[in-house]
Amino acid sequence: MTIKHHDLAAIDLNLLVALDALLTESGVTRAAAQVGITQSAMSNSLARLRKLLGDELLTRTPDGMRLTPRAAALAEPVRSALRQFQGIVL
User: Fold this and answer.
1) Cα(65)–Cα(7) distance, integer angstroms
2) Residue 13 per-residue DSSP state
3) CA distances from 30 to 4, 18, 21 (A)
4) Per the confidence metrics, is the pTM higher than 0.85?
5) φ, ψ at 28 (rounded to 5°)
6) Residue ranges of the alpha helices (H) in the chain?
7) CB neighbours (10 Å) of residue 87?
8) What are the residues whose beta carbons fall under 8 Å from the beta carbon of 17, sequence distance 6 or more?
9) Sign (positive/negative) of CA torsion 13, 57, 79, 62?
């Protein structure tokens, strides 16, 4: 598969870090704490991710936030990509 550099350059790759935290924590407040940003900044990241991926990712339920099926399917590939990237740069 060819890497489309122009397409990737338009995406803030920090969103992958936010996405991983959101998928792990299933909530904005805990995800923000995990990443070390404000709740407002994480909410903004979630909004950007929703637009980028065309999916709600997290939905509010009476029991708290729940991952959508698409979000659940993304959890391991996102974590794997971040591990690989971390291995390259660190």
Assistant:
1) 31
2) T
3) 33, 11, 8
4) yes
5) -70, -45
6) 5-9, 14-25, 28-35, 39-53, 69-89
7) 8
8) 35, 82
9) positive
The structure tokens listed for 84 are 């690989």
Q: 13 and 86 in contact (C-beta within 8 Å)?
A: no
CB 18 within 8 A of CB 49: yes
DSSP 36: T
51/63 Cα distance (integer angstroms): 25
* Model confidence pLDDT, tens digit, residues 23-60: 999 999 999 999 999 999 999 999 999 999 999 999 99
Determine how many CB atoms are found less than 10 A away from the CB of residue 36: 8
> In the chain, how many domains are there?
1
CATH number of the domain enclosing 75: 1.10.10.10
Residue-number span of the structural domain to which 28 is assigned? 5-89
